[in-house]
Amino acid sequence: MANPLTTLASPFKLGSMQLKNRMAVMAMGVNLAEEDGSCGDRIIAFHERQAQGGAGLVILGSTGVSWPAGANQPWQTSVASDEMIPGLKRMAEACHAHGAKVAAQLHHGGLVSTEDRVAGRPVMAPSIPEEKAPGFINAFLPDELRMMYRPSPETILHPMTHEDIALLVEHFAAAGRRVRDAGLDGIEIHGGHGYILSSFLSPFFNNRDDEYGGSLENRARLLLEVFAAVRAAVGADFPVWVKIDSGEFGQAEGITLEDARTTARMLEQAGADGITVSAYHDTSNGSNHSESNIPHTPERLVGNAIAIRQAVGIPVLTSGRIEPEAADKHIAAGHFDLFGMGRKMLADPDLPNKVCNGQLDQIRPCVYCYCCVSQIYILKPVKCAVNPETAHERQHTVLATDKPRYFAVVGGGPAGMEVARRLDAAGHRVTLLEAADRLGGTLQFASIAYEPNERLLAWLRRQMASSAVEVRLSTLATPALLKSLGVDEVIVATGAKRLMPELPGSDQDFVFSGDEMRALVLGENAPSLRRKTNAFTRGMTRVGALTGVNRHPWMLRQASRAWLPLGERIVVIGGELVGLELAEYLAHRGRKVTVVDESPRSGAGLYLVRRMRLLDELHELSVTLQNKATEISIGEHAVSYRNQRGQVRTLAADHVIVAKGATGDTALADQLRSEGLSVHTIGDCNGVGYIEGAMESAADLVAEIGRAA
């Protein structure tokens, strides 16, 4: 066991609130409340699980003070009436039972109040904003657009009058009283992310010419009035702090860091107990949606948090892709005081306990795929690709069995390892059979193209090593072997089959299928590569296998920057997740890449927010995306297709990679059933579902087995 991170594990006082450690669950809009905005069983189970996992503070996200007015999600939590108090009281009791403090984030969406737009209610704003074309809209797939854009009347933008402002302040104050009366421990006032208080603070959105516009002091007036009213409603000893934007990234006339430092000082003088440092962005740019409050760039907000911490004498809470080890050092150095986590706590709600117990290598990693927040964009409840228990705590939590059985799991990819791990945790006996000489399946190749996946691969392998699962590598699962083991049931998790699609010219030596690319990179046996590669390439592949280099995705990523057995001009046929991530990988290694696909839009299989960013990055890397291509064929070092205008176009290609054609494959399962074995199938052998499908199908099956026992 490693030493615990003692600074993160140490107690801390935020105002009058004593926290058992410095780790907080950041406020996240999760779309888990009841239709009337109350806290029901599902959202209570969601937050109770985080408290059970050891968080010192749980902050409930986006709690609407004027609900349903001002709501930005269809199942958003409300604190707009006394009828909400019983549900909030149940929430407080559930979190307190595990030693966590719980706070509500008071929220009004303002310009981002999508529920007001749909209902035809006036959308509150400081002033009529400058219109910007939503450049990111091309990242949406057709079905996502249908989910996001619900039928609605024409939007009524309503610059707030003094009467509107006075009523809003009253709503915040009344909401604060309800939070206190429900037995919660604190309040975070949401002054960021483009919502109503943030838009008043922003010189880009606020063009008023009265006492609420112009200078920063005037733009901050509404926030300070709200704070003063909430403070008066809850009393001097009840913890109240404020989330602010430390910048509006990409917005030339938006909030600056110096604005934020001054606002933080004004809030400190007004009596705030702390500052949560976040950020907002120019929403018309797709990559910005993963650059501010949910950043893809590690520690994106740390510098701003340090600058604000230097400007005030009250505690600072921040977040944004900070690793626990780094957070421990930052807090010890006085850079900020509390470590906030959103995505990490969705991936592993036990993270705080594991930090305090020195079990850092047991933390299930977030892979920054943006599954969680993309759900909110398309108006669905939150979920997590690597943790199927998130928002399904009562359906997927592993329970110990009193009727243990013996299972054989066939296939050591993510689905196979996850189902084996869960069955072992439930108390069953498990033998995992893998035909290759290592665990990982297609996750190994996915870890080369997209680095964060490697952390999940390593975690799953560690879980196998620390479990009681018997792992047999280089072992074919034959009916005879399975019968000789005497297993009760067999779970087939052998993944998809990736046959070369029927493309004219696809049998040529410079054309690789997805499986051939995987075999080439990982040093696996593929007879067709003998005619498609030269002796030097095959020799280098063998060296990689003998030295173990191709067992480590990080080594392969580095080695491939120096040597990659592919020509300069590469055409990737297939514009879904695999094709786009492969295109990015190749472009970073100096290749000129064109992606050709029949679909109208690229990126199926990628979650929306990750897709927004990747499409922008591919554009910056000069990768060409050719959609709506038909009659695709491969000639002599060239790919031809008919474009949407009916023209036949031809692309020169040193190599062609066909990144499509994967389908489910239940042949082995069918064979085993015909031999009289009891068989289940999970993962990609049922149809391509990527990491989320693998993990979720494993959890579903173990839950089903538990119910049937």
Keywords:
alpha/beta; eight-stranded parallel beta barrel; five-stranded parallel β-sheet; 709 residues
Can you tell me about this structure?
- Helices cover 38% and strands 17% of the residues.
- Helix 25 (577-587) runs parallel beside helix 26 (608-620).
- By secondary structure, it is α/β, with parallel strands linked by helices.
- Helix 5 links the parallel strand 6 and strand 7 (157-159).
- The strands form 7 sheets. Strands 3-4-5-8-9-10-11-12 form an 8-stranded parallel β-barrel, surrounded by 7 helices.
- The chain has 28 helices and 27 strands.
Average pLDDT figure: 94
Strand arrangement across the biggest beta sheet: 3-4-5-8-9-10-11-12
What is the CA–CA distance across the termini? 35 Å
Number of helices: 28
Largest sheet: 8 strands, parallel, barrel
Low-confidence stretches: none
How are the SSEs ordered, and which strands pair?
Blueprint: H1 6-9, E1 12-14, E2 17-19, E3 23-25, H2 41-52, E4 57-64, H3 85-96, E5 101-107, H4 114-119, E6 123-125, H5 142-148, E7 157-159, H6 162-181, E8 186-191, H7 196-201, H8 216-219, H9 221-234, E9 240-249, H10 257-270, E10 275-281, H11 302-311, E11 316-318, H12 324-332, E12 338-341, H13 343-347, H14 351-356, H15 371-377, H16 393-396, E13 406-410, H17 414-426, E14 429-433, H18 442-449, H19 453-466, E15 470-472, H20 479-485, E16 489-492, E17 497-498, E18 511-513, H21 514-522, H22 529-532, H23 535-547, H24 553-562, E19 569-573, H25 577-587, E20 592-596, H26 608-620, E21 624-626, E22 630-634, E23 638-642, E24 648-652, E25 655-658, E26 662-663, H27 667-674, E27 679-681, H28 690-708
Parallel strand pairs: 3-4, 3-12, 4-5, 5-8, 6-7, 8-9, 9-10, 10-11, 11-12, 13-14, 13-16, 14-15, 16-27, 18-25, 19-20, 19-25, 20-21
Antiparallel strand pairs: 1-2, 17-26, 22-23, 23-24
Helix pairs in contact: 2-3, 6-9, 10-11, 17-19, 17-28, 18-19, 18-24, 25-26
